[in-house]
Amino acid sequence: MTDKITWQNGNKYTFRLRPSTYMQVAMLMPDAIAAKKKRWAVVYPNFEYGQSAATWFKEMLKKAQPDVEFVTEQAPPLGKVDAGAVVQAIDDAKPDAIFNVLFGGDLAKLVREGTTRGTFKNRTVVSLLSGEPEYLDPLKDEAPVGWIVTGYPWDEIKTPAHTAFMTAYQKRWGTTIRGSAPWSVTSPCTRSPPASPKPPRPTRTRSSPRSADSSSYSPLGPFEFRAIDHQATMGAYLGKIALKDGKGTMSDFKYVDGASVMPSDEEVKKLRPAAAMN
């Protein structure tokens, strides 16, 4: 999801299918702005992905709400979060809201420690990727209800394309879908809805990069690759964490088209070297 793949380090042979860090932060931004909270705490894993997400969040929110204050930033090493110390620092800073980028085991530790101490009570929390099933499932009934998240509510999506995909996936593997599944099965060379859930194998080679701005199809719907940065317009789901049958899921969710949260061509040109398109 790092923005550098298609921007600073982009080249004509590299295309990204999944929504980037910038795009997913932009999906959360309307809710963050609507919360009208002045004092924010920011928590992210201290590597490029987390740093990028935190930077975009602060930049976008500051632009929309100039009087916002970021009262604490907690950036633990990936996989080594001291959740007690992070939660204490948040409480000491007395924020009105929290932006979280931790995931996996780090997220679980943060949620459990923060819930025990009441850190999330009466505070708006917006969180990147926390609605993904592989992050919600381990939390079970400890899932933080009410968090505003991007994610993948696989068991609640009722579109024909996704239903066909889900049925085929579960028949083949005998298990529930993980968040990476829709992207893993999508072929960049699929131009129209496949006759079966199995997409055709890509045929383009390194010496023949795929043309940009051409339509493709996925379990989440059609998308295109933009010519300017080879980023797909594939979107993601935005909603709130809820409990269903003792497990975390997403409620009040909607699909956000990736094209609606992309930076303009002019913004991309400032970040992507001209040589990358030659």
Whole-number radius of gyration?
Answer: 19 Å
* Amount of helix: 25-40%
Strand content: 15-25%
Q: What characteristic shape results from the CA principal axes?
A: globular
SS summary, helix count = 8
Mean pLDDT: 87
- Please outline the major beta sheet: 7 strands, mixed
Oligomeric composition of the shown chains: single chain
- Strand order of the main beta sheet, please? 2-1-3-4-5-8-9
User: What is the terminal-to-terminal distance?
Assistant: 23 Å
| Number of beta strands | 9
**Low-pLDDT residue spans:** 189-214
Q: Structural class, judged by helices and strands?
A: alpha/beta
Order of helices and strands: HEHEHEHEHEHHEEEEH
What does this structure look like?
The radius of gyration is 19 Å and the shape is globular. Helix 3 crosses helix 4 (104-117). The chain starts with 20 loop residues before the first helix and ends in a 7-residue tail after the last helix. It has helices at residues 21-34, 48-64, 83-93, 104-117, 133-136, 160-173, 181-184, 265-271; strands at residues 39-43, 69-74, 97-100, 124-131, 148-151, 215-218, 221-224, 236-244, 247-256. The strands form 2 sheets. The chain has a 7-stranded mixed sheet. A hairpin with a 2-residue loop joins strand 6 and strand 7 (221-224). By secondary structure, it is an alpha/beta fold. Helix content is 31%, strand content 19%. Residues 189-214 have low confidence and may be disordered. It contains 8 helices and 9 strands.
